[in-house]
Specification:
Layout lengths: L4 E9 L5 E9 L5 E12 L2 E8 L3 E3 L3 E9 L3 H13 L3 E13 L5 E11 L8 E2 L1
Antiparallel strand pairs: 1-2, 1-9, 2-6, 3-4, 3-5, 3-7, 7-8
């Protein structure tokens, strides 16, 4: 059974300062899995940016992916880093680390360790949004 993965598909800074995240959950297994909990730390350029706690309750088919939208309050350092990236029009690298709870079909729930690194870039025409 292959380990699931998580990444950021999109981050939007809301008018109230909170972030709306589109979290992409990947099921690399050959059987369906129900994703029930996500506990991840988000870091930008190795600095703490936010803690993500969500209950997506998504059934994701074999070798497929889906997204879950969640809203969170970032750390002051995370807010400053995003503001700088958006103002400068530059991307930034991120790391997600923590766990995803998923239940494979016909089995019990399991916490899977997750660590992923990628990058986000400002989206032209969508102020406050990075993909």
């Amino acid at each position: 059974m292959s380990q699931p993965a998580a990444s950021l598909q999109q981050l939007t800074v809301r008018a109230d300062g909170r972030w709306e995240l589109q979290l992409r959950l990947n099921n690399y297994s050959s059987m369906p899995m129900r994703f029930t909990a996500v506990r991840l730390d988000l870091r930008f350029d190795n600095g703490a940016a936010a803690h993500i706690e969500a209950q997506p309750n998504l059934e994701i088919g074999p070798e497929s992916a889906d997204t879950h939208v969640t809203t969170l309050v970032p750390t002051p350092a995370g807010m400053a880093r995003i503001a700088t990236a958006l103002a400068d029009g530059h991307g930034l690298s991120y790391t997600l680390e923590g766990s995803v709870q998923a239940t494979p079909e016909g089995a019990g729930a399991k916490d899977w360790k997750v660590k992923a690194s990628s990058a986000l870039s400002p989206v032209p025409g969508l102020p406050g949004t990075l993909r």
